[in-house]
Amino acid sequence: MNGAHLNRRQLFKLSAYSAMLMGLSARAQVGSHPLADKASALPALPAWPSKVQKIIFGSCIDQNKAQPIWQAILAARPDLFIFGGDNVYASSQPWQLQNLKIAYATQAEQPGFAALRASVPHMAIWDDHDMGLNDGGVEFPHKQAAKNAFLDFWQLPENDPRRAREGLYHAHVFGPVGQRVQVILLDTRWFRSKLRVTDQRDAPGKERYMPDSDPQKTMLGETQWQWLEAQLTQPAEVRLIVSGVQVIVEGHGWEGWGNFPREQDKLKQLIVKTGAKGVVLLSGDRHIGAIYKSSSSLGYPLYEITSSGMTHAWATAKENGPNRLGELITQNHFGLVEMDWSKQEIQLGFQNTQGEWLKKLTIALSELR
Questions:
Q1: Which CATH number applies to 45-97+119-368?
Q2: 71, 164, 330, 359: least surrounded by Cβ within 10 Å?
């Protein structure tokens, strides 16, 4: 395991919490369940913030790669961190639960990751590689076992509703009236129908998949759709909808909501129907960073910020990007969403592993009404 090469003294100095995670990993190496301990036996996680100004998020974290990025994230002092999926990689086939356990335990040994978990409030949703099947969805037969491992690794309380229902979707509202930020984590794996495979692999716009307008195909499943509608009626000034895959992005044939155009339109229509204001979309999966703006005339414009590639961004990535604002980010990075409540603005942007700004975009909250 990669953790065997880490500086043990440094790990032990981080905190008792980090040391506990090291112990879990050690047991995994001798074949026991690395997540068998109850979450309640671990030190308490950081308390939720009373208000939120700066949120950092990212996705695509390979537990076996170097992770200097955590130092820049910790230095930025976020109020909240959102893990946007592919938080570890354990999708080799045939799938084995033990490989997922070891992946989590290896990631737990990363000193910067452990420091963030111990000190920064955080939320997490999965994507295909921590669920267990590349580009997988409803057809993956081991998703319940993978979900159980997710629940334990992220230390979700025994009374958390995610333990009692299918999927891992969740939502939380932070902050006082006038400064409320709602974070909605969508599960775009558990219920998602099988994709329509391309007839021209690697052709621009048809790289892996083609749009499928079958009305029986779903991205979220009926239960999650109903839940989302209820969430969008909750009062909030800013709503961050987190999707493991890209939502409004046009011009490519990789995974995304564009694989199911009816579902993509349904989401836009639901935002209008519920009167939800302040929606910004967060996504991952693609191993690039970029900001997009919807070309739809339905309601106010939707902005999407994709931050994907904390340990292994796609250095040679290219896309047509007809609704992309600016160039792709093709180096390791993390995304930032910062609210300036006095100016009624929201800033989207990216920083690299050295904490240097790569891109910024400021949006007036009045535009998201």
A1: 3.60.21.70
A2: 164
